[in-house]
Amino acid sequence: MENIKKELYQLCLGYIEERMAAAQKAIEDAEDAMKNDTKSSAGDKYETGREMAQQEISRNKLQLTEAARQKQLLERINPTKASRTVQPGSLVYTDHGSFYLAISAGQFTLNAESFFAVSPGSPIGVKLSGLQDNDEIHFNGRDYKILKVC
What we know:
This protein has two domains: 2-75; 91-149, no CATH class. 49% of the residues lie in helices and 21% in strands. It is built from three helices and six strands, in the order H-H-E-E-E-E-H-E-E. It has helices spanning 2-36, 43-75, 123-128, and strands at residues 91-94, 97-101, 106-110, 113-118, 136-139, 142-149. The chain has a six-stranded mixed β-sheet. Helix 1 runs antiparallel to helix 2 (43-75). The N and C termini lie close together (7 Å).
């Protein structure tokens, strides 16, 4: 189980780093576009293009900031720590899927098994937090039984 948690941790870290790199590249591309946009006789077109590039920069800076925040949260997790109760860094096996409480990164497949990386602050993360083996929750019209917490 410990190896699976380490691999999921690395997949989450890679996910965040890809998001950060993509946002940084988009910022650089928009800044380059602004620098290379020459003022034409159609002044409104020039101003509109610059404004759109500025909005793109602002949007991507927000994404970069959010990804950096998620990376900080992820770095607080010790992927080798075992736990009996669900908490950040826990791997939770239920009768309706397996969840890794770290960051919201979607679904990963390891050894032909699917895992959902979810944030402890997500609706399912909140429901699972603090629970132990054999506890049950009701979420989105479905009953979940916790088979194992690692």
